[in-house]
Design a protein that fits this description.
Helix content: over 70%
Structural class: mainly alpha
Shape: globular
Number of domains: 1
Subcellular location: Cell membrane
Strand content: under 5%
Main location: membrane
Keywords: Membrane, Transmembrane, Transmembrane helix
Order of helices and strands: HHHHHHHHHHHHHHHHHHHHH
CATH topology: Growth Hormone, Chain: A
Pfam families: Sugar_tr
Largest sheet: none
Membrane topology: Multi-pass membrane protein
CATH class: Mainly Alpha
Length: 462
């Protein structure tokens, strides 16, 4: 199902504001998941944390993201994008405030798990809302901007953490955690007043509300009959149940989205959570100075996303993701040389990996939103997120153990192997969705072309 007024609308101030508001969630995600890596230094010294404690605290948020994505994606498809869009930010504010007062390992684990659940919820909420509002020709780029915001948030975490540690020492780790509450409150205020997705409203048969939503956001009055026709098509679709994600073509798409996402972020999350420790293993900076190295890597990740944002809408999704994964394997394999490598080679490889990862990175949220229909779009995004976090949580938990027992070289080679799996999955299963409506990209192969756009034109002429 598609609504021509949305699919073919010019990019407006509303679209830009919505993009920034939706990007606020990923920005906070990157910030909250990265600031803990900086804060852990002071936490460990003051609370006498063991390596196992650090691993649990580092991985707890990722487990929470698994649960949050799996559960709240489906809730979002039932209750709507708008309501969940602000609730999850309120949880981030509360969880960040409570983290300041925690004193025991189990308290930090519980709160990081709670924050992870809110983060996992935000991924399908914000991305499905944006995907259902933006015009076709801009969809890949604007969804990719959300990922770029993640890296900006991660870089900000390392810079702010570095500054706090320089000014007040490692004992400022509670202030580092408190900074997340302030940023979450600002984004929450920005999100208030965002209109509900017309596609979700039509999917629920609420055509009058969809008409008002489009009028409010785009200033266009759509004939109610046009929306009634769209609602009839949407509600006649058979594939709108949770179990449909695990049947036939949708099963393949679910596995593709989840596995390539997992292979992308498993090495990347490990690098971010324990970035200072990894750089220290290579001899690149000690103590607080290694946080600036992590911030630099984050900036390079941002730079890698910039050309990918243009390419996904110009040359297509499939070639971008296939070639990017292939190139990402190379620097990780070189880093398998371990601590004996010259620092210049280490820096070059980290930067190369960051640059090449831009392709699959900007498609992490584009593919799940394009390959599934409105009734299960957020659910699919949540499931893909949950699958990805299985590997991310395991990798984050095991990385410090691997560094200690296997060494940095072997650890990097394991990362190269995981990335290679991502290339294989993308080569076999990646579909091309560039320039098509959500109705067309989510349709099953061989299905009749959605007729809503043609009916829209006929109704507008009448």
């Amino acid at each position: 199902m598609s609504i021509r007024a949305i699919d073919e609308a010019p990019l407006s101030r509303f679209h830009r504001k919505l993009t920034w508001a939706c990007a606020g969630g990923p920005f906070l995600d990157g910030y909250l998941l990265s600031i803990i890596g900086v804060a852990l230094v002071g936490m460990s010294n003051e609370l006498h944390l063991s390596t196992g404690d650090e691993s649990l605290i580092g991985a707890a948020a990722l487990v929470g993201i698994f649960v949050g994505g799996l559960f709240f994606g489906a809730v979002t498809d039932k209750l709507g994008r708008e309501a969940m869009y602000t609730i999850d930010l309120a949880v981030l504010v509360g969880g960040s405030i409570l983290s300041v007062f925690a004193t025991e390992t189990w308290q930090f684990v519980a709160l990081r798990f709670l924050l992870g659940m809110a983060i996992g919820a935000d991924y399908p909420i914000a991305t499905s809302l944006l995907a259902e509002w933006v015009p076709n020709r801009h969809r890949g780029r604007l969804l990719g901007v959300l990922i770029l915001a993640w890296y900006v948030g991660a870089a900000a975490a390392y810079v702010i953490g570095y500054a706090m540690a320089e000014i007040g020492g490692s004992g400022t780790w509670r202030w580092m955690l408190a900074s997340g509450a302030v940023l979450s409150a600002v984004i929450l205020l920005l999100r208030i007043g965002t209109p509900e997705s017309p596609l979700w409203l039509v999917n629920k048969g609420r055509t009058a509300d969809a008409q008002k939503s489009i009028q409010k956001a785009l200033g266009r009055t759509i004939p109610i009959q046009q929306l009634v026709v769209a609602a009839a098509e949407e509600q006649s679709a058979e594939h709108s149940r949770f179990r449909d994600l695990f049947q036939g073509v949708y099963l393949r798409r679910t596995l593709f989205c989840g596995i390539f996402y997992m292979c992308q972020i498993t090495p990347m999350f490990a690098l971010y959570t324990f970035g200072p420790a990894i750089l220290g293993s290579f001899g690149l900076g000690e103590g607080n100075s290694s946080n600036l190295g992590s911030a630099l890597i984050s900036v390079v990740f941002v730079l890698g996303c910039v050309p990918a944002l243009r390419m996904v809408d110009r040359i297509g999704r499939r070639p971008v993701i296939v070639w990017s994964f292939a190139l990402m394997v190379v620097p990780l394999a070189v880093l398998g040389g371990g601590s004996a490598l010259p620092i210049a080679v280490v820096v070059t490889c980290f930067c190369a990996y960051a640059l090449f990862s831009g392709g699959p990175t900007v498609l992490e949220w584009t593919y799940p939103n394009e390959l599934f229909p409105t009734g299960i779009r957020a659910t699919a995004g949540g499931v893909a997120t949950s699958i990805s976090r299985i590997g991310a949580a395991a990798g984050t938990y095991l990385l410090p153990i691997s560094l200690d027992r296997l060494g940095i070289g072997t650890t990097m080679l394991i990362g190269a192997g995981i990335t290679l799996v991502g290339w294989v999955v993308s080569f076999l299963w990646a579909e091309e969705t560039r320039g098509r409506t959500l109705a067309e990209t989510s349709a099953l192969p061989g299905a009749a072309r959605p007729a809503t756009a043609d009916r829209d034109r006929d109704l507008e002429r009448s």
